[in-house]
Structure formats: C-alpha cells, structure tokens
Amino acid sequence: MDFSVVAVAREDDSPIDEPLRVAALADRLGYREVWAGEGPTWDAFVLAAALGRVTERAALTAGPVPVSVRDPYTLARGAASVSAVTGGRAVGVALGTSSKRVVEGVHGRPRIRPAAVLTETAAAVRALLHGTPGEPVVPGSTFRRRLPPPGGPLTVAAFGDRAIAAAAAHADRMLLDVVSPEQVRELRAKLDAAAERAGRARPTLAAWLPAAVDPAPESLTEVLGSIAGYLTVPGYREVFAEAGFRAAVELAAAGADRVTLVRALPAEAAATVGLVGGLDTVRARIDAYAEAGLDEIALVPATAADPAGERTLTALAARAEHEQG
Questions:
Q1: For the chain, what is the domain count?
Q2: What residues make up the domain containing 300?
Q3: CA dihedral defined by 300, 305, 308, 313, rounded to 10 degrees?
Q4: Taking a C-beta distance cutoff of 8 angstroms, is the pair 9, 226 a contact?
Q5: How far apart are the first and last CA of the chain?
Q6: Given a cut of 90, is residue 233 above it in pLDDT?
Q7: For residues 233 and 252, what is the distance between their CA atoms, to the nearest angstrom?
Q8: What is the mean pLDDT of residues 55-76?
C-alpha cells in the first residue's frame, strides 16, 4: 500500500492557506506525493506551484481538474509550468468530470457529455504529457515546446462505468473518492475487466479517504461534513443506507442542507468511508482497504482541532515509510 497526502482548501471556515501547511508537514514526514486539489477557492496548478515552494522532495499532482472547463493543452502546459518553477519536480495531472453544481454553478460552463469529454481529454493529455522540447506544442502548430515534460502520472477520477473505461484506456492511475472497502472491491473488479478489454496493464488504484486518528469532536464534524454531499449520489446513498444511516439519506433526498445532514449523521458514520478512530482501528481499516484491492491511500487529514492534520499524518507516517520502503 502506498500513501500520499491531499492538500486541498476546504470550503468551510478553515484557513485559506491551510493546504500549504498540510503539504509542508507531509513532506517533512516523508510522504512521497502531495495532491493539490482544485475547488472554488484554489486553482490546482497555482496551488501545486505554491506547494512546491514549501516542500523539498514530494512529487506533486494537480487536480482532479474538471475536464469541462479546460482544454487538454492547458492542462498539460499547467503541469509542465509547475514542474519548471519547482526545479524539475515530477508533476502529475488528475482529471475528473466534477459535478453540475461546480461546472455550471461555479464556472458557468455547460457540463455536456461528461464521460465522453473525460475520455477525449484523457487521451489527448496523455499524449501531451510525453512531448519533448522542440516539438510542436500541439500537432500542426507553428509554436514549439520549450518546457520539458512534467514527468508525473496521468490520473483519472472515476466511479461510473464509462469513466472507469477511460481510466483503463488512458490513465496511469485511477482515483476513487470517499469510498468504503466494499466499493473498492467492486470498482477494482470493474477496472481489472476494463483494462483487459483495453489491452493495457491495469492502472494503479488510489482513493482519497478522510483520515482522523483519535479525532476530537470538531474533526468528526469536519469528516461528516465532507461526506454529507454524497448522501444523494447513486452508489453512495445505498452504502450509507445499508450501514444504518437511512434517515440521513432520506433527509438528503428531501433537500436538507449540509448542517442538517451533519447533525443527522451519527459519529460512527465518519468511519464508513474513511480512516477514523483510534490508531489500531485505523490500521485495521487500512488492512481492509488493501485486502479489497486498493493500491494507494491518499490521506485527506481532518484539520479541525488538529492543525495541518499533524496528529493523523504523524501517526500514519511510520506505516507509510515501512510499506513504501
């Protein structure tokens, strides 16, 4: 099992520059990769460049970036630019379809044919990431590449069958978000089958998982807030309903707001799709994810009452160092 760390600006009352502190700590503790998550607050490539300035060794991945709001060349150029300004650090790109709420509500762009656009973009970005200086920036262009390739992996965030097929056909890594071990097992089987159909080696399988070791009540609330938005999503709502949280699922279906949903979710719901609890509990949960077929856990540390997620990242650093050699 590999471990990485997600440095993402939360859309709540947490400090805007908190991702910088999370990344600096992760690098100091020896985690090999940091993800610069994109959202309404931070641009992923700007954040990745900033993270490169506060870290020394960690590889960087920007995204997932919604494919409906950027063209393939912009994505590849962004990664190469970050690599150039961070001393040749390996920089990867993560792609996703995001949601209508983000693509249309934040960016004002239509979210049309998202699975098809994801597939087309992944194919194009994969080719662009491996270009060399002196070549046309895109086929047929009179402009020439001046920046070396960024050297990082192409990641595709996937959940539905068509997105999984896109990851199997084009990605180095497929990313899941906030999933249970049972979901990992099912999605790993789908990825294996899709890769076989595509005639490629299976991409590695990673998941962003909320993490909180010995969490304070504030951290539990933060994790519950991060999963509240999934209560209406097909494939997730069934998991929560089967886990005993049907009342919260029904509230979400009726249009309840985030605060109401967090109040309706018991504390144990936080551990359904993440690493939450005492250290022994979290270690056992990691084993369950590994047994289900997950190759990499991208830790999304709860930072409420634990600035930069220091308690959680420190507690899990020894496990990460041991398993990653």
A1: 1
A2: 2-214+271-324
A3: -60
A4: no
A5: 11
A6: no
A7: 10
A8: 97
